[in-house]
Amino acid sequence: MARPGPGCARHQLKILSANVRGLRTNIGDLTHNCVLRHSIDIVVVTETWLNSEVEPTFGIICGYTHWTRKDRLERTGGGVAVCFKEGLQSQLLDVVTPPEMEAMFFRVVLADRLAFLICAMYRP
Q1: Which of 19, 108, 110, 121 has its CA 20 to 30 A from that of 93?
Q2: Which branch of life, at top level (predicted)?
Q3: How far apart, in whole angstroms, are the C-alpha atoms of residue 37 and residue 42?
């Protein structure tokens, strides 16, 4: 990886991965004590326990994208969700995963055009 030259601002990407055991009950704590306090760039949560009855706009964090979610369909529990700080370029990739695995893959491009893949995964 190239090092920034003189006068270039260096930004360390901050990624949070948390097993929240219920995003509805823990969104406030996650938002205020983790995401905003530490200026997290990418938030990955597992065991969201969300389903299709929960609005897609649930849990919006000011300054961040909507949650991209993969809810567990056939029984309660599980689920993964990801949100990105506004301005961070991301693309959800179409990746086939085993049915017992809850996973999403994203391509993320940083300001210096450096790209990487990130996976949000929960395997019960």
Answers
A1: 19
A2: Eukaryota
A3: 14
